[in-house]
Amino acid sequence: MNDHQPVSIIMIEDDEGHARLIEKNIRRAGISNDIHHFTDGTSALAYLREDRNGPSHNGPALILLDLNLPDMSGIDILGRIKAEGSPLRRTPVVVLTTTDDKVEVQRCYDLGCNVYITKPVNYESFAQAIRQLGLFLSVIQVPDRTEG
Amino acid sequence: MLAGLSISERWFHRLVLGAIALGFFVLVSVGAMAASAILQNQAQIGWINHGYHVERAIARYRVLVERLEAARRGMLLRDDPAVAGTFASTAAAIGPALADLQRLTADNPRQQANMAFAAKLSRAHLTTLRRSVALVGLGRRDAAVAAFNSDQSLPLIRMIRSLCDRMTAEEDRLLARRDAEQAQSLTRFYIAFGVAAVLLAIVGIGSIWIIARYTRDLSASRDELRLLNAGLEGAVAERTIDLQRANDEIQRFAYIVSHDLRAPLVNIMGFTTELESAAAQLARMMDRVEAHMPELVDQAARIAARDDLPEAIGFIRTSSDKMDRLIKAILRLSREGRRPLTPEPLDMTVLAQDVADTLRHRLDEIGAEMRVQPDLPRIVSDRLAVEQIVSNLAENAVKYLNPDHAGRIEIRGRTEGARAMFEVADNGRGIDPRDHERIFDLFRRSGVQDQPGEGIGLAHTRALAYRLGGAVTVESELGSGAVFRLTLPVTFAGEQGPKA
């Protein structure tokens, strides 16, 4: 991770249970970074763009994004994050969702998603996937906004 | 309305037929009438000519008689051999002329009576003249002249003249009557001809009117039919689109539902696992407490930690596993339903043999055999879908063989018109006829449940067959094997209508 500022993890996930399981397994992988959890797209976008402590103004971040949200499609959020001119364009986005439709996966990558992970229903596989994601997070280089 | 129409139509048809028959009848009778009129006319002209002939014959006879009289008088005046020759030749001609007249008037009894009188007069006249001429020949001219003044020749010739006039008048009368008759028959002919012409004209105009009306009706109904046809095609297309839309809707619904069901399932399974590890911790703790401070452990807590918790967790786990499998199956079905079909020519013998080969290992294990008919019909269809159907049916046949006797499975087929029929026949345990429809339902199975599976295969198979424009049916009795029959169009043209 970056030396001077810790990377915060922003999790946009409407299912509290999933969020809890993801968080547990990330912690089990030894990742202790802050995790900000949002259950809907609107407040997540507000935080991402406006909040003083949010990634647009302060510090590097990594976004965990679920595609099935109550108020808007995760695809929309992905589109806005990765849009031309967005301050968050270089922020890595990991799409973590139940949808494994080929077309959806392609669309996410087309929009600039960095990693696409399907949530396996089987918990062992799920836990495994999250822990591996944790290992991945521990080595990943996240760009600082100010460096951009 | 329809019945009334048909009755009036029938009457109309009769009328048309009657009119046409009448027209032809009139034509034929006009022809016959014309022929008979011409024949009659000819006969009448013949009779008129005959009348003229008779009149001419009378005139000839009269001329001869006059010339004979003149010749006799000439001979009385001077002795000239030329005149004598004339008398002789004329006298000789009288007989034939009379005979001619006799023959010509044979048809008329009144003229016959005149003729008899004429013959008598002529004979008497000729005799008188001959006597007078004979006297001249003997040189007794004076006697002859005296006789001339006193003999009967003058009154005789007068009588002959008046007789000839009467006969001519008689013939004139006949001629006049015949002329009148001819004129009358001509008039009759013209009247009949006129009537026939009018009738023909009426029939002709009527026929043309009927034909025109019929043609108009025909083209009107043809247009109407075309319109109806177009409407029907439109309705069918609309219906097809509706069906397709409904099908797409169901597919989308299944997809969304199965996705949304997965999310809570992730939680159930995840937290069950968490619970399990927590319970394991508790059980270990219980073990330690029991080992060191047994007085702290009561029976209820021990049972809860060692038996109840693991049991409950176990049930939750198996149930959610099962639910996971079902949801996956629905998802797979819905994904299959959304997959676009691409028809291509398929060698079904090769395809079925490939399916049999993939089952070879299992068949050898249970000592069963699968035979593929070497000349299965070739079809044009979606390869993956047909493969799945055949392999599903073949797998089922292998799965539900009767362990009591050697399994035999046969894949056979034939073409029936535009459809190909394939059968997977086995001698396995068979299916109760009551379950024949049920087995094609999702998650439904039949018979002894000793084989793994969710009850999806046949539902999937039937859905695929329907999509390919075909069907899957079963014929079976419990205990005596089953025949699954797949019918498919020989050439599958691809799906109609929009596809989501």
Question: What is the topology?
Answer:
The complex is a heterodimer of chains A (148) and B (500).
Chain A: E1 8-12, H1 16-28, E2 35-38, H2 41-49, E3 61-65, H3 74-81, E4 93-97, H4 102-111, E5 115-118, H5 123-139
Parallel strand pairs in A: 1-2, 1-3, 3-4, 4-5
Helix pairs in contact in A: 1-5
Chain B: H1 2-77, H2 81-104, H3 109-137, H4 141-150, H5 153-292, H6 299-338, E1 343-346, H7 348-358, H8 360-366, E2 369-372, E3 379-382, H9 383-399, E4 408-416, E5 419-426, H10 457-467, E6 471-476, E7 482-489
Parallel strand pairs in B: 2-4
Antiparallel strand pairs in B: 1-3, 4-5, 5-7, 6-7
Helix pairs in contact in B: 1-2, 1-3, 1-5, 2-3, 3-4, 3-5, 5-6, 7-9, 9-10
Oligomer: heterodimer
Overall pLDDT of chain A? 82
Largest sheet of chain B: 5 strands, mixed
Binned strand content of chain A: 15-25%
Number of helices of chain B: 10
CATH topology of chain A: Rossmann fold
Query: Shape of chain B, please?
Result: rod-shaped
Main sheet: strands, sense, barrel of chain A: 5 strands, parallel
Name of the CATH class of chain A: Alpha Beta
Which superfamily, in CATH terms, is the homologous superfamily of chain A? Response regulator
Tell me the distance between the termini of chain A: 16 Å
- What Rg of chain B, in angstroms, do the CA atoms define? 63 Å
Most extensive protein-chain contact, per-chain counts: A-B, 15 and 17 residues
Helix content of chain B: over 70%
Q: Tell me which CATH architecture of chain A applies here.
A: 3-Layer(aba) Sandwich
Mean pLDDT of chain B: 85
Distance between the termini of chain B: 47 Å
